TrEMBL record:
Taxonomy, superkingdom: Bacteria
Lineage of the species this protein comes from: Bacteria, Pseudomonadati, Pseudomonadota, Alphaproteobacteria, Rhodobacterales
Record Pfam families: Ribonuc_L-PSP (PF01042)
Name of the molecule in the record: Enamine deaminase RidA
Source organism of this protein record: Tateyamaria omphalii
InterPro entries tied to this protein: RutC-like_sf, YjgF/YER057c/UK114
Amino acid sequence: MKPLAPPSIAPPFARYSHGVEVPAGWRMVRTSGQLGLSGDGTVPAGTRAQADICFANIAAILAEAGMGPQDVCHVSAYVTDRSHMAPYMAARDAFLAGRDVLPSSTLMIVSGFTRPEFTVEVEVWAAAP
């Protein structure tokens, strides 16, 4: 993957790339949005704990396709309040730690999810040869 960073626009203000070019012929995986729902059906309090579950679920989905966090080319995330941005971003940065090419990223504030205890939802695109 190749990061895209036109010099005519301001640099990203967090750990992401403005764009990512995926080589022709690579396999693509797109996940559904993952919520902070643990395997036993519980939802932890706190956005960081929920975001960690989101990324653990994403890692499991990618592993089933023979991929991992290093193959993520785009992350879309949704939080229910600005106060949830920093804990989400900490979980995202931990998930993407050690990467040379960062994925593109979208983060939006939304009014809510299917259940009121959810504070974050994350989906990704991944690509690998």
